[in-house]
Design brief:
Blueprint (H helix, E strand, L loop, with lengths): L1 H14 L22 E15 L6 H15 L4 H26 L2 E10 L4 E7 L10 E7 L2 E6 L11
Antiparallel strand pairs: 1-2, 1-4, 2-3, 4-5
Length: 162
């Protein structure tokens, strides 16, 4: 029973790794909430699709190793179980690392913009709900060292006083 519980908990933890981190511009982290951000106006020069490589924090390897060790140790007798448990731990660690890297890989955009002062910047962010094309007016929102690109809000001029 204890081995089964450990195995199920490990598989669940491994499956949740993909939800741990995101660069999606439509998701704001708790650290960014209620903080003043710097906003800069810009114009999109070009947009190209890129892939953000997945992370390898070690959590996938550890979880996979535990799953492999538990599964392997239940094979055969005591001696066989120990040997297969070690082999299972190694194989599980390699597989868990690969799963973590694949689960945290993101399709993204590299957005090249030109600021009003003529400087150019490049921002890579996950694909969000907004689509950008060359010539679009955008804003760069920077909070805590992270920058995201958003469509510039339409600013209406106040009616002149009579």
């Amino acid at each position: 029973m204890n081995k089964t519980f450990t195995l199920c908990a490990s598989v669940l933890a491994l499956s949740l790794l993909g939800a741990c981190s995101t660069s999606n511009p439509d998701v704001v982290s708790r650290n960014e909430a209620q903080r003043m951000s710097q906003v800069v106006d810009a114009t999109v020069l070009s947009v190209r699709p890129v892939t953000v490589d997945g992370s390898q924090s070690g959590a996938g390897a550890v979880t996979g190793g535990v799953v492999g060790a538990v599964a392997g140790s239940s094979v055969g007798g005591r001696r066989e179980g120990q040997v297969v448990g070690v082999l299972g731990a190694v194989a599980g660690a390699v597989i868990g690392n690969a799963i973590e890297r694949s689960a945290t890989r993101e399709e993204a955009l590299e957005i090249l913009v030109q600021l009003r002062n003529g400087e150019r910047r490049s921002v890579v962010q996950a694909k969000g709900q907004e689509n950008f094309v060359a010539g679009d007016p955008v804003i760069l929102v920077t909070t805590g060292g992270k920058t995201r690109v958003s469509r510039a809000p339409v600013v209406s001029q106040p009616a002149p006083a009579h």
